[in-house]
Sequence to fold (161 residues):
Amino acid sequence: MELKKQKTDNSEDYRWTDYMSLPFTQNVISETLRMANIVNGIWRKAVQDVEIKGYLIPKNWSVMACLISVHLDPKNYENPFKFDPWRWEKIEVLASNIRFAPFGGGHRLCPGLELSRLELSIFLHNLVTTYRWVAEKDEIVYFPTVKMKKKLPIRVQPINS
Fold:
């Protein structure tokens, strides 16, 4: 609200530094992606025989890396089914880390990573500073893709009314 008031009072446009000044927004985005990333898993085909932790993956076999199982594993995250954006104050989000890979990793890191985070930040900033909402109780369904069981019905009102 402070950032919005500052921009409104000075009639200034938003800048990249404004985006970077909202670290908690990034925490909310990271936690949302950890719990409910639209991509549940990624398929890869072995181009040669590969051994991983004592398991042989023969050439031409396909393997699915299940991101949800990694993101919701209690070995990786304390209370993994609890939405807790404050956890990211202790975790480096964009570090090369197999525990958090909503945008892939390595040579296959999504080139739209920063653009999608920027778009989500703009959306969330406008939603939070312009509207109030009440969501009905709903639950996440993780298979075959992440979605809300009741499609998350909400009532939205402008803050001014």
